Amino acid sequence: MRAYLRFAETMEAEEKKTWVRLFYEENKILARGKKGFDRLFYMLEHSNDYYVKAAAIQTAKDMRTVFNQEEINAGLEKAIDSLEYEYQKEDIKKYIQKKEPIKILLLDRENSGVTQLLEYMGEEETEMYVRSAGLHPSGKIEKWVLDILMKEDDITRYQCSSPIEELCKYDYLIPVGIHLNEKAYPFQKIYARYQDFDKKQISWEEAKEMICQIEENLKKL
Fold it and tell me: Tens of pLDDT along 68-92?
């Protein structure tokens, strides 16, 4: 990662087009674990190009997490006076009033059972952004999960297990019945309370209690 950052710094320094430098800056922020926004906000404040400003605003929004939202909000608020259009100013004012939800990825081996039900309950019962995935997804959902979810109106998203995708969007990884190597996931925090969870099936009530407990505990961290 350090080698990439050095490469990106060199390429950005040689690039004259601001909108291209902005792409380098976005990649560097991701490579740093969504940290270090000074140059991004400098581009936002000092560029005279509408499209660069719009892209910088969107990048800042895409990078905001529960861990850096105060820094992102402060940078966006400071840039308001540099914006030409009132609708952009109003959009930022409304945006910084919204609290960033905790984003979690529930992980187990196959993503065919417990984590599927927890994902559903997380979306229904918490304020978190919740998804689930498997290290080795089985490609199917276990019947006991479908029997529970069939009572609901729409279960179209729960027809097959999922691989890990867009890992950078999540704040926390929640291993369920598996152990994760922290070195393999340097940009997310691992909440390991359920890494030794060994139940193969859980009830609707157990899933609700479990996911609500996760949300309560993460809010205290």
Answer: 999 999 999 999 999 999 999 999 9
Each residue of 131-163: b (16+ CB within 10 Å) or e? bbbbeebeeebbeebeebbeeeeebeebeebbe
Question: In which region does residue 150 sit, left (phi positive, over 0), alpha (psi from -120 to 50) or beta (all else)?
Answer: alpha
Residue corresponding to tokens 């850096």: 68
Q: What is the DSSP letter of 102?
A: P
Q: Are 105 and 132 in contact (CB under 8 A)?
A: yes
Return all residues near 156 (Cβ < 8 A) that are at least 6 apart.
none
SS (HEC) of 173-200: EEECCCCCCHHHCCCCEECCCCCCCCCC
- Give Dmax (Cα) for the chain: 59
Residue 153 backbone dihedrals phi, psi, to 5 degrees: -75, -35
The answer for residues whose C-beta is within 8 angstroms of residue 140's C-beta and 6 or more apart is 112, 160, 161
CA 77/CA 57 separation, integer angstroms: 11
What is the pTM (predicted TM-score) of this model?
0.88
* pLDDT tens string 12-55: 777 778 878 888 888 889 888 899 999 999 999 999 999 999 99
Instruction: Write the CA distances from 20 to 17, 24, 50, 68, integer angstroms.
Output: 5, 7, 14, 24
CB-based contact 152:140 (threshold 8 Å): no
